[in-house]
Amino acid sequence: MTTANILAIADQQQAVAAVLFYIFAGISAISALGVVISRNIVRTAVFLLFTLVGVAGLYFLLNAEFLAAVQLVVYAGGTLILIIFGVMLTSKSPFSRFEPKAVEVVIAISVASVIFFALVLAITRTKFAVNPTDFTAYPIDKLGQTLLGDFLVPFEIVSVLLLVVMIGAAYLAKGRRREAD
Amino acid sequence: MTSSLLAVQLADPRLAWAPVVLLIIIAVGFAVTNVAVSILIGPKRSGKVKETTYESGMVPIGDTRRRFNVRFYIVAMIFLVIDVDIIFFYPWATIFAPYVQKMPDKSGALLIEMIVFVGLLLLAYVYAWGKGVFRWD
Predict the structure, then answer these.
(1) How many CA atoms lie within 13 A of A108 on its CB side?
(2) Considering CB atoms only, which of B5, B83, B124 is closest to A74?
(3) How many CB pairs under 8 A join A and B?
(4) Average pLDDT for residues A6-23, to the nearest whole number?
(5) Which of A166, A174, A179, A181 to mutate against chain B (most B CBs within 10 Å)?
(6) What pLDDT, on a 0 to 100 scale, did the predictor assign at position B49?
(7) What is the pLDDT of residues A128-166, one digit of tens each?
(8) Which domains does chain B have, with CATH numbers?
(9) Where are the domains of chain A?
(10) How far apart are CA B89 and CA B114, in angstroms?
(11) What pLDDT is attached to residue A181?
């Protein structure tokens, strides 16, 4: 295989990566618009799911597999489920809809435009590296080795934290039921 | 120079995701094709029964947008805790198989570390069980 061949393959891969980037970024952007525009709270949650999945795809493209997995499992899986459960457990009217007042719309637009302006300013002023960083520098197995080697005690303490969360949730749920009886 | 470039190309971890992309394409394609074909060639008769919500053959009760029993809250919490737990399986799983192959004497310690991690959580599960969280009465 000649160098020219390899460079051609590299070009191809970059083209594929670019196409994937635009697909994922498009999914995220359009769904984010849907989140803002939709008045139906359940539809908003579904749009949010696609936004989060699109962002996870971008993380995959950046070779941040662990971050992408966290994004999918914790945000797209966990947080969204919590939002849906929140709607299911609390919704009173058969079709709960957002009816924002004019003042709220004005406040939202002004805050959003300030953030948008700051983001555009930050992106245009940042000097991005032309050469891609070495994506083999932070492999997931290295993370595993560090977590289960040097940071074993914090790793197990995470489990204790989750234990406390679960016991707390069970205690609260049962306490509420006893009051009801 | 050529060999090192080739090594970089072959080691590109993005290529390892090709099966996942293929799976997504097949899944989305299957769903879209089924709906499209049934719209195109399916019979279009409508009736009172046909316009009810499909509930796997059952007669639907009420509306979807009603308030659900608050007991589902504990189901959501347990799901979330296990969900976060799974995240920590990922880095562990990537190193466990290589350790078993290359350093079998160290893989036992690795397994015990994970068993302790899961066992602590199982304790909470047993507590919730004992509290009667899973009873539906």
Answers:
(1) 8
(2) B83
(3) 162
(4) 81
(5) A166
(6) 79
(7) 877 766 666 667 778 888 888 888 888 888 888 988 988
(8) 12-130 (1.20.58.1610)
(9) 3-99, 139-181
(10) 8
(11) 46
CA–CA dist B7, A46 (Å, integer): 42
CB contact under 8 A, B9 and A94: no
Query: A114 to chain B, minimum CA–CA distance in Å?
Result: 34
Question: Which CA distances in Å does B102 have to B92, B95, B106?
Answer: 16, 11, 9
Q: What tokens were used for B11?
A: 């080691």
Cβ A39 vs Cβ A99: under 8 Å = yes
Q: Which of A8-12, A81-85, B97-101, B105-109 has the lowest mean pLDDT?
A: A8-12
8 Å CB contact between A85 and B73: yes
Considering the segment(s) A3-99 as one domain, its CATH architecture is Up-down Bundle (1.20)
A162 neighbourhood in chain B, CB within 8 Å: 81, 84-85, 120-121, 124
Residue to mutate among A131, A134, A162, A177, with most B CBs inside 10 A, is A162
For the cut 90, the answer to whether the pLDDT of residue B37 exceeds it is yes
Question: Given an 8 Å threshold on Cβ–Cβ distance, is A85 in contact with B73?
Answer: yes
d(CA A66, CA A140): 7
The CA distance from A38 to A47, in Å, is: 9
Distance, CA of B116 to CA of A162 (rounded, Å): 13
Report in angstroms the alpha-carbon separations of B123 from A59, A159, B127: 34, 10, 6
By Cβ distance, the residue of B63, B84, B91 closest to A162 is: B84
Spatial CA neighbour of A93 closest among A40, A165, A23: A40
Determine the length of chain A. 181
Tokens of A9: 């393959």
| Best CA proximity match to A158, nearest among B69, B61, B88 | B88
Helices (H) and strands (E) in chain A, counts: 7, 0
Describe chain A by its helix, strand, coil percentages, rounded to 5: 80, 0, 20
